Structure formats: structure tokens, C-alpha cells
Amino acid sequence: MLKFKGGIFVFLHLGENVVVPIKDVIGIFDLQNTMYSSDTSQFLRLAEEDGFVQRISKEKPKSFVIAEVNKKSKIYLSPISSSTLTKRTDIDYNT
């Protein structure tokens, strides 16, 4: 976490050197389970053709994360499982 005047920036590490602000994350999805749907496969294929997909590493992706970056949707293919990424977003706001 990085502190700034008046609060805290909280980032989600997606793998390699890629981080996104948690507030910008729209959804975290398990790649293997969602690929059974032809709609998801088509969505990811079209997004890749349009340049919205960023592969984070050469490792086989386990999840994809949709985030809003500079007012545009971006899809990150992450080598980290969706369950691990989801656990990383679990913030205790009572502290």
C-alpha cells in the first residue's frame, strides 16, 4: 500500500510487474471455467483483436481481470489464479 495525503492507494498485483488500483477493477474471472462459454471466448477474442488485452507473462494464464484504465476497459491475462487475486482484494476497512 502507498500512502498519500488523505488516504491510501490500494493496488492489486496481477503478476510480473503489473499492478492496478483495486478501485479500477471491474471483475476477476477464472479463465478455465469461463472458457466453456462461447460468449466468453468470443468476447476475449474480439477484445484481443481490438487491442484491449494485455498478456502479463509468458506463463499460461489462469485468470483474466477487467479493469478501467484511463476511462477505457482493459483486460489482463494473469498467471495468478482468480481465487488468489480475489483474496488479495479483501480489505479490512475497520482498521
UniProtKB/TrEMBL annotation:
<protein>
    <recommendedName>
        <fullName>DUF370 domain-containing protein</fullName>
    </recommendedName>
</protein>
<dbReference type="InterPro" id="IPR007169">
    <property type="entry name" value="RemA-like"/>
</dbReference>
<dbReference type="Pfam" id="PF04025">
    <property type="entry name" value="RemA-like"/>
</dbReference>
